[in-house]
Amino acid sequence: MSGNNSTLDAGMSGNDSTFAGATLPEAMADMADIASRLATLETNSNIFFMMINAILVYLMQAGFSLLECGSVRSKNASSVLLKNYIDTMFCGIAYWIFGYALAFGGNPNAFCGTRFWAGETMDSGDYMKWFYQFSFASTTATIVSGAIAERCRLEAYMVYSFVVSAFIYPIQSHWGWHPAGWLFKGDGEVGFQDFAGSGVVHLCGGAISIVAAAVIGPRLGRFKAKERAEPVTHHSAALISLGCFILFVGFFSFNGSSQQAISGVVDGLVASNAVRNTAISGSFATATGLLVAKTVSHIRTRGHGRWSLFTTVNCGLSGLVAICGVCDRAPDWGAACIGIIAGLSYFFWSWLMCISAVDSGD
Q1: How far is 290 from 315, CA to CA, in rounded Å?
Q2: Residue-wise over 295-334: b if at least 16 C-beta within 10 A, else e?
């Protein structure tokens, strides 16, 4: 042991003497090299953070596919899955050619960006941002597939997927998320705030869904009597449950990564609060849906009510969507209240779609 210690001491002494003998320019060069390496590490850490989370957000496509597939009749399962696959592939083409340029392209104005068409002149530093925003655009496009399940021609759906991914979502995301967007800037003092896309992503997809469902019309036999919807056959509870779990995972990344950095002083705290609030809101919305659905069923059947998996799952997803806009700053009690309100709002909107004879896919 004493021999090893003497060798170590000698080595340390040698290193100290070498450092002490360095000239000032050499020491400054070493410091500059260290600073450069730290800056590179910081940049790569942020890129890796965004990459992993963008991949998990993209996994939401699988969640939507399973949820929708389990929610329709078995004869239409293949059609639903194909539409979800078309969503993401057509989105990749459309977002590369037009979408990213309109949303975050160079030389922006208050309405849209004007450069980076098909990636032209895009700096390599924007590649990760392109992929990250593509995963969000793909999520927006696929929301509509469930609302018009079992009754939309594939050719029409291809056109929809391309148009939404190329023009509709990119332009309004520029308004709300780009510093040059008119909505983001507001009146100069108060601007639009939407941390993870309650409005930019989910309201956009939801509004398109309602319009599409109203224009296309309900499935045959869905409304045989006025203000009374015939129940839809959900052919696989397992697919619905698995799809919901995957969507929960996706929403944790969706909301937690919207800071789009992890190396800053507060980045980790913001991301932590976002995922915590997402879990709280989703949980309270799920519990609200479970209990309200059971209570309503109990009253309707005079004491023979049943628990509803489908309603419970959709109420939980409502809570995840509702918290997106403020998940970074809401207190935990606020997230709980948002979840409860979101769960209740699911019943209101389902009732409104029913009395309006709009088949929203539920």
Answers
A1: 8
A2: eeeeeeeeeeeeebbbbbbbbbbbbbbbbbbbbbebeeee
Both tokens of residue 300?
């309707």
- The two counts, helices (H) then strands (E), for the chain are 14, 0
pLDDT of residue 30: 86
**Partners of 225 in the β-ladder:** 228
Q: What is the DSSP string of 301-330?
A: TTS-----HHHHHHHHHHHHHHHGGGTTT-
Confidence class of residue 56 from pLDDT cuts 50, 70 and 90?
Answer: very high
Residues 246 and 256: their CA atoms lie apart, in Å, by 15
Distance (Å, rounded) from C-alpha 210 to C-alpha 308?
24
Handedness of CA 121, 125, 131, 134 (dihedral sign): negative
Mean pLDDT of 96-117: 96
For the record, the structure tokens of 115 come out as 């450069």
Sorted by sequence, the CB contacts under 8 Å of residue 187 that are 6+ apart come out as: none
- The larger pLDDT score, comparing residue 301 to residue 170, is at 170
pLDDT tens track for 289-307? 999 999 999 898 887 888 9
